Amino acid sequence: MSGKATKNRVKISLKGPELLNNPRFNKGTAFTRKERDQLGLRGRLPFAVDTLDEQLERAYKQYQSRETNILKNSFLASLKSQNWTLYYALLSKHLIEMFPIVYTPTEADAISEYSQLFRRSEGLYISPPEIDHMEEDFLDACEGRDLDLIVVSDGEAILGIGDQGSGGIGISSAKAVIYTLAAGVDPAKALAVTLDVGTNNEDLLKDDLYVGYRKKRLRGEKYDQLVDKFVGLVKKHQPKCLLHFEDFGVTNAQRLLARYRSFNDDIQGTGAVTLAALQAAIGLTNTKLSEQRIVIYGSGSAGLGIARQLRDAISLESKGIDKKEASSRFWLMDKFGLIKKSLGKDKIRDEIEDDFIRSEEDWGSDENDLLEVIKRVKPTVLIGTSTQAGAFTEEIVKEMSKHVDRPIIFPLSNPTKKCEADPKEIREWSNHKALIATGSPFPPVDIPGGDKKYVVAECNNALIYPGLGLGTILSRASSMTDSMIISGSRRLSELAPCTSKNDPDESLLPDFGDAPSVNFEVALNVMKTAQSEKVSREEGLPTDEKEMRKWAEGKAWEPKYEEYEYDQQGLR
């Protein structure tokens, strides 16, 4: 725990109810007799003094007693507002079980009901009518803290459920929680922010209980001015902080990324984890990344982010191949079909680079069907980010399998009901040769002729973005460069079971249960790359790998209780 400490004691200036209502320092029934005497807690707590393990046992039983996932989510949110240490210790102990509760899919339900479930605010809310007070409000939210992380969302494209207005604070908060769980970022050094710029969700606008800014979404110059002012405040007052953009709409996400060079998980995180899975897959096929023919079905923020990330990796890792040539390995599709010049500017979004647009010399005017594109391109890789359930049909998979021994097929759309194909069917249609990664968890698939099963990889961003962020935070990098992201992806692919065991039936990515250790390894690679690119600003960062590992381990926040000592000048 950071702060004013003497060996094993942390000096705090809180007492009595003020201390019990502070989730950062509250220990509940774990306050010792000495602490209760000194901190004005005697008589305010039951007599027994519990250990953290005893509190965990009680909290888990309470969690289990909640009958629905949304009630479990609400219980955990309440626990977080009371006691950070207990909250994070409980999640860490039951990570695989509780992750779908605090993130997708349950968090999406909680966000959609944010105004109905609202009890207590957290983080920072910024709305257009209060733009003149933004600096004052920002400083108030950051008072006394040197932040490592700010996660910000404008709530327009939340977890596949779209525009949720002020409920966007929920996704910012959830992402910050995962940084703590998977990368050891101190929650006291993280801030969740929502840019509550209105909503185009008519259900919210008509809801009498809606707690957000009840106007249509801010667009154009006024929107840009608000975002620009916010980013300027971060740079001015928290210049060493990682700024993470989350769930911005397709019209803003790439544009803001290009403008501010902050980290956008929907674009860069999704691209990075997909790159890692693909690197693991091509390791099994004994081919090179530059040799792939890649069809991406669905060209929104996620699809374009994946295309750009893979293209940049091809360019950086292949001698003599620039980004323009690397782009020629891609065929992008959206609701109008193959993205090509004949569609005209009115059907091609501004954020799609010219290099990704197929020319008429290569294509006619009728290639709007995925099957026809598969027949002509003969791709080695098919990636789905369309949210169109069943788009990868039996005919498409069989056609692809005619031209490549081990087709690489990633139906990444989530939630599960929007996945382009069931991995079980993809395996059957490809004669059990396809190498698969999905955007949602799926059970292993039986392999004919034995007891062995094919393990389906889940392209879960949480396997990499906390590590990318941690490496950037610890190195105090001036920016998260393309090379840093690609370096992290490469390390993740090396940790995949299929790579370490050289077995094509093993997963293309590590299990999510290993997320903390995996993200730490990713962070080390990111830190080393930051040093080699001379963007690291951390003077104390060791150059020796063993020393760097030891140093980084010492920086991790852990959910454990410290002993408190009262001091009027202590932490609050």
UniProtKB/TrEMBL annotation:
Gene3D superfamilies: Malic enzyme, N-terminal domain, NAD(P)-binding Rossmann-like Domain. Coiled coil: none annotated. Transmembrane segments: none annotated. GO terms for biological process: malate metabolic process. It holds the Pfam family malic. The active site is at Y103 (proton donor), K175 (proton acceptor). GO terms for molecular function: malate dehydrogenase (decarboxylating) (NAD+) activity; metal ion binding; NAD binding. Signal peptide: none annotated. GO terms for cellular component: cytosol; mitochondrion. Its cofactor is Mg(2+); Mn(2+). Keywords: Metal-binding, NAD. NCBIfam families: PRK13529.1. Belongs to the malic enzymes family. This is Malate dehydrogenase (Oxaloacetate-decarboxylating). It comes from Kwoniella dejecticola CBS 10117.
